[in-house]
Structure formats: C-alpha cells, structure tokens
Amino acid sequence: MVDPMRFEPGQTRARRRRVRGVLQALRPGRFYLYLTPTFAFLAVFAYYPPLLAFYRSFYDWDGVRIEKWAGIGNYVNMFHDEVLLRSVWNLAQLTVFAVAVSVVFPLLTAELICSLRNRRAQFWHRVLLVVPMVVPIMVQLLLWKFIYDPNVGLLNALLRLVRIPSQAWLHEPKLALYSMMFMAFPFVGAINVLIFLAGLNNIGQPVFDAAKIDGASVIQRFFRIDVPLVKGQIKLIVILTIIGTLNGYGTQLILTDGGPGYSTMVPALRMYQQAFRFNHLGYACAIGMALFAAIFGLTFINMKLMRTDYE
Amino acid sequence: MSSEEALGNSPAARLRAWTPVFVAVVAALASDCGGDVSVNPSIAASRVIRMVPWVYMPSADMEISEENPFPREAIRLLAREWERLHPGVRIEFMVAAQEQSAYLTWVETQCRGGTIPEIIFYFPPGDKLANQAWVLPLDTFLEQPNKYVPGNRHWRDLIVPACLAPPWMAQDGHNYFIPVDIFMTSLFYNTAILEKAGVHLPIETWAEFMDAHRRIREAGYEPFWSRAMWSLWPRELMGQLMHDEPTFRRLDVLDPNGRIDPEENARGAYLDIIGIHESRFHEYLRLMKEWSRYWKTGFSFNKSPDSVNLFRAGRLGISWDGALNLSDYENDPYVTFDFELGWFPPMTKASSPFASARTPERIPVPGTCFYVTQSAVDNDLLEPVLDWLMFLTTPGNVAKLTQEETGIKIPPAILGAKVDPVLAPVLAQVTELTGILPIYWGLSPEAEDNFDRIFELYLMDELTLEQALARMAKWTDFGVREAIRDNQTLTNPEDRWDLSRW
Amino acid sequence: MSRRRDNSLEMVKHVLMAIVIALVIYPYAMLIILSFKNNNQFYSRPWVITFPLHFGNYGAALEALVRYVGNSLVVTSATCFGVVLLSAFSAYVFARFEFRGKQFLFYAIISLMMIPGVLGLVPRFVIVKRLGLLNTYWALILPYIAAGQVMGIFLLRTFFESIPKDLFDAAKIDGAGDFRSFSSVAVPLCKPTMATVAIINVQFAWNDLIWPLVVISDDKLKPLTIGLLSFQSQFATYSMTRWGPLFAGYVVASIPLVVLFMIASRAFVEGLTTGALKA
After folding, report:
1. Interface of B with A in 120-179 (CB under 8 A)
2. DSSP 3-state of A144
3. Which CATH superfamily groups domain B185-364+436-501?
C-alpha cells in the first residue's frame, strides 16, 4: 500500500534509493494488493455462493435428503421442460421491449433536460426524477396492481369514459405479458436519465455550438453527434437492462405468479419456484447457470457490436 | 518505520478510513476458520422459546381505533401465565412477514441455516418441511395425556379429529402440527343484490344456484368469487356433489377406514382409478367451466384474492370465504347492506348424471397450525416447547386465544372450547371429512402447480378439453413418479410405502 | 424574431418535461393520497383525494416506525461509504494501470452482475451465520458492500477512463503517487458518478426486504423494511390489510430518503457544473 514513488522527507537519499529499488521490483505487484479488499469481499459474499450453485447444478439435489450425481442431466432436462421453453419466449419479448424503451425514453428525456436554457429548471427536473426512486418496489407494484385491477382499477375506469369495454389486464392470458411490459411507463428510470445526462454533459457546449454554427438541425445533431458520443452510455444501459430483465422475477412473483397459466412465466421465476417450492435445488441451480450464460453471452455480443471508439 | 510515517498525512487519513473495513474482513475470515458457531449462546443460556404466532401476534397497542380495529394480546397473557409455572424459560414472539412468498423464503433459509424458531406457523399439511426433517412428527406426543386437562388420556382427543385426518397428514403418514383454530368456510350472500336480481333464499339445488348466478349477472353485479378457487376447496366440494361410491371402494383398500390417505391417493393415480382418464373427472371439468362463466370478471387463480374487498364494496353477489370474515364484516361500519350466511345446495341429476344428490357438508380445515422445528431439539427445548403447546391447547386457553374480546373470532380447533355466539351458525354443520372422494389431489408440488395452471387455461378457453387433458395426464404421471420417489427415499424405512401391495 | 421562436420552443420543452415529470412523480403522489384514506375510501374512490383525511394513519405509522429509522440510517450510510470508497479505488486501479490479468480480473468482477440473485441466497445466509454475524449490522453491511461495489466498479471505471491521461501525467510529474493522484485528481472529477453510485446503493440498501428478513430477527436491529412488515401485520388479519396506515408507513419510511436525495442531487449537480469533465 506504500507508494514507492512518493517523495518522503526525513530519509537519507541512499536508503531511499534502496527502498525504492526493492519496491520497484514489486511495482507491478502493488496493483493486486490494491485490489485485495475488493476481492476479499467478493470471495466471501459473491463468488462462493454461485460457485457452490455451479457445483450443485450437476446434482439431483433436494437440499437435504436426495443427493445424487446427475452429470449434465439437469442441463439436458431444461431442453425438455416445456414450461421453461415457454418462459424463455416470454422473456425474449420482455427483454427486447425493455431494452428499446430504456434507451429511447431516458435519452430523449435527458436531451430535453439538457436543452433547457433555464439552469434552475434543469436542476429541479433532475431532482424530481430522482424522487420516485424512494418508493419501494413493493409499493410501486401494489399501485400497478390497483391500476390494472379488472373490477375497480383506474385503467378500466378511464377506458369506460371513452366507452371501451373493461379488460382483465394482468388476469387475461393474451394481455398479461404486455400489461407487464407497460408497467414501467413512462419508462424514464432516474438512473438511466442521469447516466445519459452525464454523457451529454461530457460532450460539452463547444461541440453543440460548433454544430449550431454548421447549421445542423436539432434532429441531425441528435443522430450525428449526440448518439455516437453517448454510445458508451447506451451500451451501459443496454447491458444493465438485459441483466435486470433476465434476472428479474419479483414483479411476476408478486403480481401474477407467472400466470394466468404460463403467460407471464419467466425463467428466473421458474428457478425460484424450483428452488423454494418444488425442492428441486439442483435443477434450479442449472437454470441459474443457464441464465448466467445467456446474460454473459448477450453482454459479450453487445460489447462487440457496439464498439466505442473514443474510450 | 511505520506505514503512517512513510505516508503523507492525507493518504494516511484515507487509509485509516479503510481500516474498519479491513478489520471486518479479516475478522470475518478468521472466524470462518474458527469452526461452526451453531447455537447462539444467548439463546441457550437464558432458555428462550421463540415462536411465530402468526395471526395471534400480540398488537403493539391495545387501543381500538379505525386503524387498529382488532388488537390482540391473549397469547402474551397466556405466555406470562405459563412462564410463572416454568421459571427460567421465556417465550418470545416473532413477527412474521404477511406476504406469503416472503414468509416462505424466510422459513426456508432459517431452516437450512438452523436458526428457525422453535415453534412456527406453517401451512398444513407441511409436506415440504416434513420431507426435509426440519419439523418433528408429533404423533407420539399426541398419544400422551395433556397434563393441563384433568382426565385427558390422549392429547389428540382434544383436537377436532378432521384436522389430524389423512389429508392433513404429511406424505409419510405422520401428524406434524398442532392446530389451534379451524378454517371454516361459508357462502356470504349479499341479500340486497339477491333481492334486486329476484333470487330467493334458500336455494335448493345446484341448477337453481347456477340460475341465481345468471340473474345476478343480469342485474349488473359480479355473481361469484372466492379467493381460494385454486385450492382444495372446490375439489372437495365437487367431490361431495359428485360422490361415486364404487370408485371410492376401489380406492379405500390399503387401509379401509372410510378415508383416502396419501398412499391410497398415490396408488389411485398410479393405477388410474381416479384421475384424468375417467369420465367423472371430465364431468368435473365441464361443471367447473360452466360455473366459471359467472365468476367475477377477470378472475384468475393466483394473486386474485379480491372476493373480500368486492363483497365489502357491495359489488359481489355471492362470496365464498373464511367464516372469520364474519366478525370483520359485522364490525365494519361501512358494510351497510344486509348479508346472510349460506352453504352449497346439493346437485341433482338435472345438472349432471354424476350428481350425488347429497347435501354437501362443511368440512373444517386446520387453520393456524403450529409446527415444532428441529431447533427445539438442537437447543434442548423440546420438553418445554411441548409443555407450552399443551398449555395453549386446553379448551379454556384456546377459547381465550381464539375468542379474544377485541380480536376477530376464529372457530377453535379444540373440542369443548367455548365459542362466541356469532360463530354458532357456522359451526352448526361441522362434520368430519369421511367417505368423500376428492377430485384430484396434489401428488407433488410441481405437478400440482402445473395442473392448476392448465386447469386455469382451460377455464379461460385458452386450451381445449383434449389439450388440457393431454397435458394434465403428463403432469399426473410426473406427480406419481415424484410422490413415489419422495416416499421411497424417506429416512425411516417404516414410512416407506410397500409398493408390492399396490 | 428567432428569439421569440426560441422562447415558444422553450415553452414546449417545459410543457413536455412537466408531463414527463408528472407521470414519473405520480406513484409517489398516489402513495401520499392513499395514505390519508380509510379502507372504505380506499376501495370506493382510490384515485382521488377523499375527505375526511385520516391523519390518524400517520400517528399510528410514526409511533411504530421511528425506532427502525436509525437502524436503516446506520446500515445505509455504512454501506454507501464502503461501496463508494472501495469501488472508486478499485475502478481507478482498473482504469489507470496496466498489469497482467487486468482484463480477466475486471470481467471476473462484472460477471458477478449477471448471476441471478436467488442462486446465492441460501449459501450466503449460511456463510453469514457461520461468521457469527446474524443479528448484527454487519450481516447487512458486508454483503451489501460486496454486492454494491460490482456495479460501482463497472460505472466508475467507464468514467475514470474518460478522464484525459494528461491530468494524471501532470500529477505524476508533480510527484503524486497512486494514492495522491487518486485522491486529488480522480475523486474530485468523478464526484457526479460517485454520487450516482451512492444513490443506487442508498436506494438498494434502504428498500431491500428479503435479505434483512432472513438475517435480522432482533427487533432492536431491524431496518425499516422489515419494520414495515411487522407494522403491516399489526394492521392485517387473514384477509384484509388496513391500507391507509400502511401507506402512511411507507411515506414515513421514505422521508429520510427524500431529504437525502435532495442533498445528493445538489452535490451531483455541483459536480457536473464545476466541470473538469468536459472532454
């Protein structure tokens, strides 16, 4: 942790040189030392549990009694599991939608805020965007449950005003998944907007001014300057959204339990059920590993496809 | 040369800020190597029984208000009384998460980690906990006398027999819980809506019952809903409405006692005596589909427990719910309409060729069930834990608990406990579940889950009868295989089924 | 002329923004409206303000929740501090220096983000128990720091990399070592991102439910979320929840967070406007 390059008063030159010589040899090693605290935490609380799960994914395991080596049996079973395959299709739809809206809407909002001339207004919009983050997910889900309620819900009440018949939304097999997609409405998560704002601020006024002098229209500027320059942020948000959507199951668990039928079932929820309700822990671990592999693959592709040059 | 001297002031200050983190990590790692600290020493020293009392959790505040209409403290008072008889042992009540998935996750982790309280609430019959040996079978204790009841020879004799009967035994055939109350269901008729719809009580047959639904819908109200349509309730009801004596006799053979126990159920499914290939089961599906046309708009099995609220808001004609909602409704200043209790009418041949024409019985179901966990053994508390449960389940004490003045009145699971008059109409027709053939029982949690989902899709016209049956058949086979496998790997060989008898 | 067009354009922007903000703020506004209702008002007219307002809901909520606020403050601030410090430094190391295996180590860290949470729940609980940390603040803080720094490192590394190398070279010439250039060059520049990381972690630690439920059973140590749970069961029976007091509880629980976010946002904005970030 001692920095060998620092000038330390009160030492003789010769001694300092000697110490510096030794430390020079250790120099590249110090980086590992710097990272030790991080990895110490991770080893205990973050690496060990999933590694254990990886090991368990090769077992037919109920957590206590049944414990039998299954080889890749759990992984093979996944391909025969109709429920899981159905849930993958649901997840694919959810993910494509989530990625699209979590880039487009926050970016437009960030542009809008950024372009406001009034600094105070800029500031307050940012603050107000952050405020709903304090509402716990549980409460947000509960509110959406009431909005979608087939009998007393807000949405049906609004539709009745324009004489559209009531729908069951989350309780209607054909609508449930789409209803779930729209629960993030208006799709401007504070964190995403903040990330884009930071990116747009990075671009800096001179670039904007230059574009203005060149006579670029707002739309031209958006596509030719802003979007390429916030590519890094887009990449980041795409990755975060993919991770969040693929690993998420809380909404489904609280609102629909994957129903009606299988219409909102997602792999992560099936994994939760396999682990906590059906006692198939080995299989649940295998599903978890498959999810991890899928996320890893998608992230990798995303990194490759969206190379950012300016980094 | 200490590192502090070697560094400039400002980085040193920064480093110092890191120190607690390092210390924590090092300490954590060190204690990890130090071996298993399995028992929290403070628990062992002062002998505390931890208990999840579920609905009987004492309220923080006993003052009745609109925000706090049903405060409780009976269990705390009973615990103080018991503690005075047993110096050195204390009972500590633990709050549970009411959200079910949160509670189940909590139970699971605490069981795996060995930190589960000694007494917990769990949903009956508790197969999951029993299979993992996280809770203890209580049969032998139930045979012993409850010393707090003079003249009692077997603790079991105090408990409403239906709660200990086969459907509520775990798969290994043992009883794992002590019930303190029973869950009784009842139909709640909104008489104002019935009047507007031109429906007159009493309703005599299933056909009239369906007709009443139609009229309520025509009058512009939601006819029917129950928050447990996915559960055992409708299966038991239909089992009574469509009773089939010959099939029953073919099932009740391994232990001919007038009941179908888990082994006989699994055998029945295995040999296809009950189940999806049977015309009686097809008729069950048809009847349920017909009925489901009148369920509340946008029903679904899961996460749709709105019957209570819809009824309270005066929008639901008929609600099938727990009888304990009775005192809730009676107490609610906003329930301004009249309502009446009722029960299902018999089904006649006019509705179905399989109709039994018998008046269905109200079958009590164990409500609040207390399980004794492995922690009681690990912490050497088994004896006081059982003593406390015996104390709690005397008729007098259960009456104090379930009929608490300020709380919602719940029917007790202990015979001879005095009940509040408000419960009299509900308790009038209580009988035991015998001779009833359930339509379908869960064989394994995964099979059951999928079965329900397919059933739901069938009712919603997402699957045709053939498609639904084909998928149900698949999951029944799966369930039978799992049930047999789970049973055959039980630790105690005596609990394993003798498949050669099948 | 162009000025007037600019002004009307500015107006349109403000209106658009107002609509977005209204939609975003709406859940929080609903929360407040619902917190003043009794159950009857709740079921009959949930979406509008109804009279009389039931202030009693707040009385009940405050009484029950005040003692849990302190616990949440301790856990959240310790988590936040740990995460920001650790992840800023590690991200700095990853962004600034070249060493063997750097890419591997970095991917080893960010791949943790991709692991489904349920997978590690039970083993993590068993570890915390074996470390003897059950029913201590550490049971919450340490795993939160471990989890939070993954995202923190990921975010901060990107931003450290966008700082021009010249700044660090200049510092090096001035004789600043690794720590010095971290604390005097990197940290001041990345305050906004650090604020973002802090906000994410505050939100996470404040609202997490399942983990504290699993590791904390001592009532004296419970954070707000499970305090709310016990509060909820006080107002719930089998079938019904008293929604008013419950929502009032959620409002009470969110007040410290609202205040905190206001302050954090200010720091965030200041960090942005002080500017050395402009490339």
Report:
1. 128, 131-134
2. helix
3. Periplasmic binding protein-like II (3.40.190.10)
